[in-house]
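Fold Annotation — chain and its backbone
Encoding — discrete vocabulary of local shapes
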Amino acid sequence: MRVRPAREEEIQILLKFEQELVEFERPFDSTLKMGKISYYDIRSRINDKDSQVLVAEINDEIVGSGFGDIVKAKPFLKHKLITSLGFFYVKEEYRSIGVNKMILKELIKWSKKRGVSEMKLNVYDKNINAKSVYLKYGFEPNLLEMRLKI
């Protein structure tokens, strides 16, 4: 397995991954609109110096993705910068073999080189599998968003 920065000419593969991710997450969020929606502007992140979009390849096939965005931390926090993670997707037949772990390791290295010491991500509370994976990697729950339909 090889992890490397995504290239702009791979955008169609990445957009397909995003739609598959949306479909996977629909059961966790009844407020998502039906039809094609987009969470991320992947193309702009590929070309942004403060973003790192990574893909995982096995036998020259792109099988997974993830990104980190370096953003300013809230002024009341101890750290000045944070890496915000997202777009973790792995093709179904390649899950449970450490693809996300490899992508995360590379994003940690990239963040450290950029002077970032804190990372965060969002995960649906009902997505038990994803939560358990992130806990295994050392992430800790921090803030719970709550909603009320009125």
User: Anything to note?
Assistant: Residues 9 and 43 are 10 Å apart (CA to CA). The mean pLDDT is 94. Strands lie at 2-5, 51-58, 61-72, 81-90, 119-120. The two ends are 48 Å apart (CA to CA).
